[in-house]
Amino acid sequence: MEFSSLIVSNHRKHIALVFICLVLILKIAFVSSDNQESQIYTVHLGERQHDDPKLVTDSHHDILRSLLGSKKASRESMIYSYRHGFSGFAAKLTPPQARELSEHPDVVHVTRSKYMKLATTRVSDYLGLTRTTPTGLVHETDMGSGAIIGILDTGIWPDSKSFSDNGLGPIPARWKGKCVSGEWFNASSNCNRKLIGARYYAKGLLENYNGTYDAAEKGEVMSPLDVTGHGTHCASIAAGSFVQDASFLGLGSGTARGSAPRARIASYKVCWSKEVCYAPDILKAMDHAIRDGVDVISMSLGSTIPLDFEVDRSDFAIGAFHAVMKGIPVVCAGGNDGPHSQTVSNVAPWIITVAATTMDREFFTPITLGNNVTVLGQESLYTGKEVGFADIVYLEDLTKNDFLAGKAKGKILFAFQIENSLDIEEYAKSNGVVGVIIASNPYDHIAPGTTDIPYVYVDFEIGMDIMLYFKTAKFPKAKISPTKSFVGRPFSTKVARFSSRGPNSISPAILKPDIAAPGSGILAAVPSEEGYGFKSGTSMATPVVSGIVALLRQKRPDWSPAAIRSALVTTALQTDPFGEPISAEGSPRKLASPFDFGGGLVNPGKVADPGLVYDMGYDEYVHYLCSAGYENKSISKLLGKIYTCPSPTPSMLDVNVPSITIPYLNEEIIITRTVTNVGPVGSVYKAVIEAPLGIKLQVGPETLEFGPNTKKITFTVKVSTTHRWNTDYNFGSLTWTDNGAHNVRIPLSVRTRFSNLKI
């Protein structure tokens, strides 16, 4: 009996021990699983509930501690506390923890961290931003000497001449930012009265690499120093100082300067090598920029399709919202995924979204064939010696053995490049060719220059001309001359092929992009021996507009970001500065529409005096949030006060943006807009309508009279269609004119849809 009891007792102990071991194993497994699944999440809490930043951060730790169980766990989890422009934090959480935290009563929403990607000697003259003009925005603002432009990018190269502070006065007294030292960057010697702020943000980057990010291995430095050149290029486009005789190996020679050449620069490094930019780092930089006192935030980066749905899921847009609510315009790149439609990014209605155009400057590389016919290559720069007449070989005629036997050596390689084809340039470089001619689709960008082997791009039409010569000549030859630059007519402006297009894929009734600016083949500062280089992209167009916005904030300090956006759109050019129509590069090329360039090409000569503006503030943004289906709880947290959307839900068509976009028209509708007079008292405006094809428009009232006591007037637009079938978008405009002194034009985009089938 005792023996039996002992067996039972030991058996029970064994079972208990096994059970305890299983629990421990499972617990370890779950903990390990959680650790493996830990990711960075951004927790949005809306408006700050305290003015003291320390109290804001303490409240963030309180929320995390309630989830994680201890102060230590909270400190280890938190990466950033956003406590200046808005309230929120970034933390390492598992998906279950993130879901649990999203139910917290103080939390607006929780989003998983994502990364963004990085989306001038001629520009200022082309746009009329010259210091010699006795009047105008540049002259009237002392070239922006009191403005501060916040550049969120890859950092800055402080040794560039574009960031000299010669002739600048003291740093604006309102500036609260600072310069931070790091690798190869000394704050005391690298910052000056031009570059007044330089910081870097890497916590999000490091966490995404689980602490294994090797900066040196990736060619990076942990400091505000720019090693890729993107941020330096953008900063000098926005606010570069005057630098005479700037060029890239003699090309594009002239005086380099930014849109606001005396404005101050605050650099926030949020992007790293290989164009990696993490949302927590971007948000912290925006938080600091709001506190620091910048006049405009310039961000040449963004997401790609598919974009985040709804405003409460976009880290980027939420940060911009808080900046705008504090009176700071946010200017963003529209993206480089054109010419396909519905590819534009940064589409929130409080963001100024920029498309890219070419200018009246082109770079051509002459190719002279053996029959003395000269054709012009584009989109690549060659600054070496002329390649004399050499035999042409066609890539498709060559085998691998031919290359191995040296049959291409000393010759000019000719090829047609299509998607997914081999890297012709690399293929040629290793086989001793003296030049390469590549026929491809045009992309409206300038490839980096070379001094060894010329790589010359031609379009397919010219490619076929070369092919015809190659097929008919007994001994086909060609010579390639160095690239030459040409300025002025007959080169007209077009929306660059790479520039992302509308319509807006999230809210089709909100027109995007808003405005266009030169962004193709822009010469600006880079961290290299040459000092200046060419880059293309909406990234380059964005700081052009940011500099103009900085000037405008100096000229019109009482204007809201929405009023500034309206002035940009309503004064924009639909032709280039010389009166030629602006086309849109694509397949095929066509006249540009609002989905290509928004209101049109930015017009700094008119933007400070638009006459009327379509303004937006608290009420208008809430109108949008409600019309977009944003929850009352989320809106309340975002605004810092209880808010309930009206019933029925307001129409997005009535959001007071400077455009009218109707994605689905099948019956008569009435749209409202409100304009604010920023011109002379007593102004009288009359409506001029250019109706889209097959669309009937009636404006009421047709005349707007702004007396001494009338600052704002609301008008309606009655819209109906004569089409009996579904159509694509047709375009027109509505202009309020006071006999030509001001022509306040907004674009109209209307699509007839009798059914919108969603299966």
UniProtKB/TrEMBL annotation:
Residues 144-575 form the Peptidase S8/S53 domain. InterPro entries: Peptidase_S8/S53_dom, Peptidase_S8/S53_dom_sf, Peptidase_S8_Asp-AS, Peptidase_S8_His-AS, Peptidase_S8_Ser-AS, Peptidase_S8_subtilisin-rel, Peptidases_S8_3, S8pro/Inhibitor_I9. This is (rape) hypothetical protein. Residues 1-33 form the signal peptide. The keyword RNA-binding does not apply. GO terms for biological process: proteolysis. Gene3D superfamilies: 2.60.40.2310, 3.50.30.30, Peptidase S8 propeptide/proteinase inhibitor I9, Peptidase S8/S53 domain. The keyword Transit peptide does not apply. It holds the Pfam family Inhibitor_I9. One of its GO terms (cellular component) is extracellular region. It is found in: Secreted. SUPFAM superfamilies: Subtilisin-like. Residues 41-118 form the Inhibitor I9 domain. Keywords: Glycoprotein, Hydrolase, Protease, Serine protease, Signal. One of its GO terms (molecular function) is serine-type endopeptidase activity. PANTHER family: PROPROTEIN CONVERTASE SUBTILISIN/KEXIN. Belongs to the peptidase S8 family. Residues 654-750 form the Subtilisin-like protease fibronectin type-III domain. The active site is at D153, H230, S539. Its main location: secreted.
